[in-house]
Design a protein that fits this description.
Keywords: Membrane, NADP, Oxidoreductase, Transmembrane, Transmembrane helix. It contains ten helices and seven strands. It is an alpha/beta fold. The protein has one domain: NAD(P)-binding Rossmann-like Domain (Rossmann fold, 3-Layer(aba) Sandwich), CATH 3.40.50.720. Helix 3 links the parallel strand 2 and strand 3. The C terminus is likely disordered.
Length: about 290
């Protein structure tokens, strides 16, 4: 295609902006969720976010207002069905019955051997990590459809792609989220709603700082990662923002790992690139991607 034919498209106003867009980001007060809220708001979106922690929400709101971001908040425990319904009702009222962007970020974990989980722990993890995201998509569908060009982004984990000994139930919820992404992408394409999934690896957040403070553990993580470092929340939020932009309107149904390529690098490949003592079969017993409300 000739340059003259492509230049107008590349330079189209708003192609790399979220100005005028309306977004809901769950669990937006810390870690990856906070980075996503700030990334979307900085790009011009009006963002609503929620958390169980009212005090933390209030603190973040003051910071965001001081930076000129358009952010609104509500206290919500997304493991509870009635609170999810109330949240979407609030969002519908605030945004005039439309929603351009839904980022399902909330998630948590309980790490223990598979045989030791209780029924209550199973139900809690399923409700918080998977059911909440599924239900919010159901509830948010009319709003996303009304926008004319909706975008859903799930925050999953590489634990849903490969075995990281992060806890079986956690990994199950993330694997199911990856499949949910594919199904909704096909089913809701007719409504012009795109659905994608971002799967973080080791990301430096308040949840991971403690374990990564152990230099031996941190070294083992880096030794299995071709880029030889852990990621930053902004490296997740930048991809989320891109997937919500007009510039990505032909991307849907994808699960994109952001892990420094750790999940695909073989020991031989790593050794050829100067990284030694890194057998991937000795995967770390933690998967800390930092997206808890």
């Amino acid at each position: 295609m000739a340059a003259a034919e492509t230049s107008g498209t590349v330079a189209a106003p708003g192609r790399w902006s979220l100005h005028g867009k309306m977004a809901l980001v769950t669990g937006g007060t810390r870690g990856i969720g906070r980075a996503v809220v700030e990334e979307l708001a900085a790009l011009g979106a009006a963002v609503h976010t929620c958390s169980r922690n009212e005090a933390e929400l209030g603190e973040r709101l003051k910071e965001w207002e001081a930076r000129g971001f358009r952010v609104t908040i509500s206290v919500c425990d997304l493991s509870a069905r009635d609170q999810r319904e109330r949240l979407i009702g609030d969002v519908a009222d605030r945004f005039g019955g439309k929603l351009d962007i839904l980022v399902n970020n909330v998630g948590t974990n309980i790490r223990k051997p598979t045989t030791e989980y209780s029924a209550d722990e199973y139900s809690f993890l399923m409700a918080t990590n998977l059911e909440s995201a599924y239900h919010l998509c159901q509830l948010g569908h009319p709003l996303l459809k009304a926008s004319g060009s909706g975008s859903i982004v799930f925050i999953s984990s590489v634990a849903g792609i490969v075995a990281l000994f992060s806890g079986t139930i956690y990994a199950m919820t993330k694997g199911a989220m990856n499949q949910l992404t594919k199904n909704l992408a096909c089913e809701w394409a007719k409504d012009n709603i795109r659905t994608n999934c971002v799967a973080p690896g080791y990301i430096l957040t308040s949840l991971s700082e403690g374990i990564l403070a152990n230099k031996e553990f941190e070294g083992s993580v880096k030794s299995r990662t071709p880029l030889r470092r852990v990621g930053e929340p902004a490296e997740i939020s930048s991809l989320v923002a891109f997937l919500c932009m007009p510039g990505s309107t032909y991307i849907t149904g994808q699960t994109i790992a952001v892990d420094g390529d750790a999940k695909k690098a073989s020991p031989r490949t790593l050794q050829q690139n100067g990284v030694s003592n890194c057998p991937l079969r000795d995967a770390a017993a933690f998967c800390l991607d930092g997206h808890r409300p």
